[in-house]
Design brief:
Distance between the termini: 43 Å
Helix content: 40-55%
Structural class: alpha/beta
Largest sheet: 7 strands, mixed
Oligomer: single chain
Radius of gyration: 22 Å
Bound molecules: S-adenosylmethionine
Length: 456
């Protein structure tokens, strides 16, 4: 880059990639039926991952996403016969990814739901009393409940936050308290059910357990208190077991992927060692041939705070989540973080690996300007990828999808929160770069579910 350009901070021109963004032409819910299990901020569509999975991996290959979010890349990879590996530092994202790549069978999920329903019927009296007590005095001395996952066994009780109590009808709250206490998140089937419940916890239609807030994210707790007081809000009664049963019907519209993947909880910077150990334990290849990921955006999303009702249900601490994640960086620390992440990836990549980074060009954050957001992809190349020896195949644009996504999140005011997503396509080495370039023009089959998976 010319010195003058650096001083003016003009975006560096990077070569455009000859890769048609056909994912924009697909239906909104294109891909496996597990994808929409729960909404997740700043997630990309499954169709986008397919554009790269189809071109740059074959059945049996390992496809990795070090910032997996709700597990889109890893699930779509498994659904296409690849070994999808998703890693995230957010325990909520990890739960969603694990639920999708190591799911329960339909029979397991339905049987466990029936068991929970029977259990509830046997003891509902005491839980209804508890629910009524919490609803009558939210946050008060009577609102102490067993901890999530404690199974009702002796454990230090915890209080229910006022805003949680406000969000649900007392009977729905009692059922949620029961289910939350019984589900063990380290059990595959229970984890699947817990993830499915987070997807129906709040939203504006009859399939959701609370109508207090939209499905996309939790409203600020203070706003919830003020709104409830101002409008005398009373949530309609919704049956958790019926709602979950209907959600399972939707999720199992397609059978779970036949290929199992791997979900890891941890920092992207040290993903290689953990992924390798996990893959070795599964008897799978230990290197990834493709990475499709979107790293944290620049100062946009607080995954704990915007999911506080879901994290409460799961027994996670929203504040702790936000304190650990790398979603609040300013530009320079962000670039250093990405450089470390790309360095950390290297040991687990095959020599001809293709690395696809979807980078949000963030210009404004809910109306406020963010300095240094524009031209971020170019800066990521120059300050993080090139110094780590990656080879640039080119940049693909994803403007329409980005616009739709962010407008939905924040409303009109923030219609331009992310102006354009840019997709940096890199090779781990020159061999990877050439593979990226030669695959770009390949025809991709968009039939879903696929007619047949190609054999190895
Ligand atoms: C833009 S989102 C990815 C969304 C994902 N592509 C999807 O479709 O759901 C970025 C993710 O990075 C995660 N994250 C933030 N800091 C991290 C770190 N140091 N290591 C791993 N993951 C991190 C966040 O929890 C978030 O899920």
């Amino acid at each position: 880059m010319a010195a003058g350009q650096l001083a003016l901070e003009l975006p560096l021109e990077l070569p455009a990639m000859e890769l048609a963004p056909e994912w924009k032409d697909q239906q909104r819910l294109w891909g496996h039926a597990f994808h929409p299990m729960c909404s997740y901020l700043a997630s990309f569509p499954a169709a986008l991952t397919h554009a790269f999975i189809a071109r740059y991996s074959r059945p049996g290959d390992v496809v990795l996403d070090p910032f997996s979010g709700r597990g889109t890349t890893a699930l779509q990879a498994c659904a296409e016969g690849r070994i999808g590996v998703g890693n995230d530092l957010n325990p909520f994202a990890h739960l969603l990814t694990a639920a999708k790549v190591q799911p329960a069978t339909k029979a397991e999920a339905v049987t466990r739901l029936a068991q929970l329903r029977l259990g509830w019927n046997a003891v509902s009296g005491e839980w209804l009393t508890l629910g009524a007590r919490v609803a009558a005095d939210p946050g008060g001395a009577g609102s102490m409940v067993p901890r999530a996952g404690s199974g009702g066994a002796a454990s230090t009780p915890e209080s229910v936050p006022v805003e949680v109590a406000l969000a649900f009808h007392p009977r729905t709250l009692a059922q949620l308290l029961y289910v939350r206490t019984m589900l063990k998140l380290d059990d595959r089937t229970d984890r699947f059910l817990a993830a499915a419940i987070t997807g129906i916890l709040h939203g504006k239609s009859a399939s959701y357990l609370s109508v207090l807030m939209p499905n996309t994210f939790s409203m600020a707790p203070r706003y919830v208190r003020d709104f409830a007081a101002r409008t005398d809000f009373v949530s309609p009664e919704r049956d958790v077991f019926d709602g979950l049963g209907r959600k399972l019907d939707r999720l199992y519209r397609q059978p779970p992927p036949r290929t199992e993947g791997l979900a890891l909880l941890g920092d992207a910077r040290d993903v290689a060692e953990r992924a390798r150990a996990g893959l070795r334990a599964m008897g799978r290849p230990e290197r990834a041939r493709l990475v499709v990921t979107s790293p944290p955006y620049l100062r946009v999303v607080k995954y704990g705070y915007y999911n506080w009702l879901r994290t409460w249900f799961l027994g996670f601490d929203a504040r702790e989540i936000d304190a650990t994640l790398d979603d609040a960086h300013h530009r320079e620390p962000y670039l250093a973080f990405l450089r470390d992440s790309l360095a950390g990836l290297r040991p687990i990549l095959t020599d001809d690996a293709v690395v696809v980074l979807v980078i949000g060009d963030v210009e404004t954050d809910r109306g406020r300007k963010i300095r240094g957001g524009v031209g971020l992809a170019e800066r990521v190349w120059e300050a993080a990828a090139e110094p780590e020896g990656y080879k640039l195949a080119g940049v693909a644009l994803d403007d329409v999808a980005a616009n739709r996504k962010m407008t939905k999140l924040w409303g009109d005011e923030a219609g331009q929160a992310t102006k354009t997503d840019r997709i940096l396509v890199l090779g781990a080495t020159e061999a990877g770069r050439r593979r990226a370039l030669s695959g770009a023009a390949m025809d991709v089959d968009w039939t879903w579910p696929p007619r047949a998976l190609r054999p190895l």
